[in-house]
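Co-fold these.
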Amino acid sequence: MDGYIVSSAAPRASKAMQTYCRFLISRIGALAGTVLLGGLLTAVLVRVSPGFLVDERELDPRLSEASRASIEQEHSANRDVLAFYIHRLGRMAMHADLGDSPSLNRPIAQLLRERFPVTLQLMAAGMAGGWTLAFLLALPSVMYRSRLFRGLAGSFHQVLMSLPAAAMAVLVFDWGGPVRALVALVICPRVFEYIRNLLEEAYAQPHIVTARAKGLGDARILLRHVLPSVAPQMLALAGVSVSMAFGAAIPVESLCDLPGIGQLAWKAAMARDLPLLVTITLMVVVMTQACNMVSDWVSFRERQT
Amino acid sequence: MKRPQRLAIIVLAALFVAAILSAVAPANSHARQYRDLPGARPSAAFPLGTDELGRDRLARLLFATRISLVLAPAAALAATLLAVMVGGMAGYFGGFWDKCAVRAIDLMLSLPWLFLLLAARALLPLNAPPIASLIMTYGLLAVLGWAGPARVIRAGTRKLRESDFILQASAGGCGKLRILWRHLIPNLKPILLAQLWTTIPVFILSEANLGLLGLSASEPFPTWGNLLRDLESPFSLQPEGFAPLAVVMLSVACFKLATPAQEYHT
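Predicted complex below.
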């Protein structure tokens, strides 16, 4: 009997490994496809936008024909969008060269290096704070089944959901509040309902109802039974909230003058800086898709087990 | 209909009626500048005071309310129709079309909504005339806001496609387009309505965010987003300065409360 179990376990493990590998390969392929398509789409959009390739310097009457031709020559590389995009991807892949930003006159890699820590810090603090706040709001209403807690948490959630992120940023900035906590206030209402539903489902499970009936302490039930059962699903949503955090970082950084990637994206969009905008878009797509991939992986493993 | 839902619809209707009445019988024009009364505090003639150019704040707020309560639902309707075209056809026809649609939806949803909106809006002329900039802003919301609803509609269509009445219609010789038009779309109505109502507050908030970033309709056209820029001035320290924010929050909350329950969970 033992021999039979050992001999069937190995092919089963190998089959599971194959399933995981297939899943990973398909997800990485999808990620690469989406990233390339996203970058191309951005480049096309910028290229066809009105006013692109128009340079104010050409209006200077003091310039000679040769100088004007030289300025036009500077833009000729961007004229064919597909050639520009392929050339750019090649440079990025072969030499890790992101090029220069025409509007800021600086290497894009340097700009990203300087600004990335600010955004990363803002997003990390925002996600941690938002999730913690949402969890702390949802838990009492589910744990104690209190209408008062439920009403208070629901009202707070409703107020935050109805506030434009940019208005929140302006108010907190005007009043000298902690602008770094703003991303948390944007994320909190968006994950609150999901967390509350997860906790409600977890607390309704028979083994937890039994544990409560037997008089097990609230903290013990939460830490030993509820959290382990909801953790994978919460982790799956955490991936999605990265995109939310970056979306919230744009108005916060732009309006509160924080020198991060969100502010850089804003400046690039306003100045129609094609190389910078394409690079930021690629970076954002890679970041959000990679986080979604991790979430999918967690959900997939959960389904498999 | 539950009581909060009824109340939300009544509040929205009252806001809409007030905005329409201000157009039919305006006490003050939103554009008229009372040069002798710049930055006036609230009074009987100007219940919300005047701005730094002497324009009636209440008239501007009511004008902006009219714009948002007409254009945000119109843009949401356009986005939902686009979502029906993409999501409905992908869910029903499946195969290659479905794969393309899923990839497009994933791509749109992988970019943060505000980043996408900001980049796309900045690509359009920023110094356009007021009406053109208004149409561009809401048009952009409609063109870019279809992905979320399309995913839900695709899932709903796939579920319906497997149902017995579709199978029976198909076995009875009903063509694919006829099934889609006569059987699927009418049965998707609860999902479509829910998506439409869910999209409206998203668009209102997006316009408000764009307005605060200076990318909504250009002056002198007042929109909720443009009016919220007053929060950046010292005027925001006075209670009447919060009126536009209060109206935005009230409308968004009412739209959320009025959203009909969705029949299918996806």
